[in-house]
Fold this sequence. Notes:
The protein is 27% helix and 23% strand. It has a nine-stranded parallel β-sheet. The protein has a six-stranded antiparallel β-sheet with strand order 16-15-18-21-20-19. A four-stranded antiparallel β-sheet has the order 24-23-26-27. α7 (177-193) runs parallel beside α9.
Amino acid sequence: MHTLFIILLLTFTTTQEASAHDVLLGAEKNSPKRESRAVWITTLGGLDWPKNSAFTAAGRERQKNELCRLLDQLKEININTVFLQTRVRASVIYPSKYEPWDIALTGHWNTDPGYDPLQFAIEECHKRGMELHAWVVTIPAYKVSQAKGMGRSGIHVKKHNLVKRVGEQYFMDPSRTETADYLSNICTEIAGRYDIDGIHFDYIRYPEDAGSFPDADAFKKSGAKNKAQWRRNNITRIVRKIYKDVKSIKPWIRMSCSPVGKYRDLSRYPSKGWNCYDAVYQDAQGWLKEGIQDALYPMMYFKGNHFYPFAADWQEQENGRPVAPGLGIYFMSPSEKNWPLSDITNELHYLRTINIGGQAYFRCKFLTDNTKGLYDYLKNTFYAYPALTPAATWLDNVPPTPPSNFRTESLPDGMERLCWDASTDNSDGGVRYNVYVGDESYVNTSKAENLVATALQETSYTYNPRWLKANGLRIVVRAMDRFGNESVVEGEKEQADDDTDFVAGGYFGGPDFSVFSKRYGCIEPEPNGDILLPKRETEMYAITDMQGRILKTGFYLRKVNVSKLPSGWYQLRTLDKKGSRRILEFWKR
């Protein structure tokens, strides 16, 4: 079966640009409503963020704005999960009673940046409907050369019995039971203080050259017979301890890790000596079976037969928990291995074909820099529609109550705001809201293309009533708890109100296109496909679909031919030199 998938995969052709027809009718039409779309934001050395130092008030604002721009870029391509490196190398990016501030924030070790970067990042992610998972580097600490800068706040001084020196770096000793307690204290500090959506372990394993790790005395004292299994038990003990302690505080926090990309040798494909189980004593698939991880993001920074058979193995052993392989997009950089874009896009299509839990990207810079056109490809084709993260039904499968008492408010700029009364849930994690729009008599909330807003924290949604009413589009709002369970839209209970009707769990508007055209002056294309643009003083125009994706641009002329666009609803917008767009008209082909 694995070989068949690979043969089929190699028949795919991938281009960096998609036509308007491809954008609307291509791969994204098969987009699942739920999949992890994650990215790692590395704070170590400011590799992804921050580039600006927060040593002054002005520096703090630049640092914050830098993160906001980054998150805006990720939101633009419908990324739904951010792994923010929170514990870096026995140093952190939040005020902790256990470990010092990381140097990346201010340029100095153990120096308060003047704000709480983790809290700020959580708020900004949630504003954009994205999850924030605190990325915790577990076993490695800082380099020996950095110990002086850490001073007495460093773990090599405060907890010297928990660390081992291996070459020029300190590592925590997995064989000490106190190591599990110490790491759990950090994770429960984060979980108890912050409204995070997940905690993500990195390097929850022995170092690469594990044979040189100085634990011979500890192994001898343990009385264990098999050193390899003893080491695996040491790592599993840490994972189990943290999982149980965090869940006792907030059971909805998703616990995950990024294991080595190959679990073990397969019958036909060896791992070439680099795998979880034997090389670094990381029993990641066993953690899924035991139920002490909610998701895995294996670091599958490979291609060819080093990727596809092992991806299938992860999918086959997922045990009802999502596995979302991490893709090594940094290898597309000319300064790395200069992979072509097709190496990554082929892997994306394969992962979706085998119905695995999603994808993740290492690391953020190579995504937002649009390396080899990957950002554009995701935006225009593969992630053209939003997606919710997989629901953790093994933790809780009871949905919240539906929102109720829908009403609209007219806004001064011609927009409208749909408001509702809050839902309730059986947990204390709070409720968020997903908004769907469709032109069916009953909006199919299982379709990704009908999902227009995710994880809203407020009990309102602002929209343009012109395009809503033009095609009798209907809005449905579903409440979602912190485990990902959505409320059910109850039986329709209509209350007539001029052009609009309200239903339990949703809203829809009703005038047909002809009524709308008379009321709003909507464009009606000529038989040959020409549309007459209104008189406007603007240099460029843009034609977009109803979700704002640009399908056609050009210099602003009075007539534009749109006959090659497929049937559907469109918007005409202005396009200035800065890329800003303003809606002028609507039309239907």
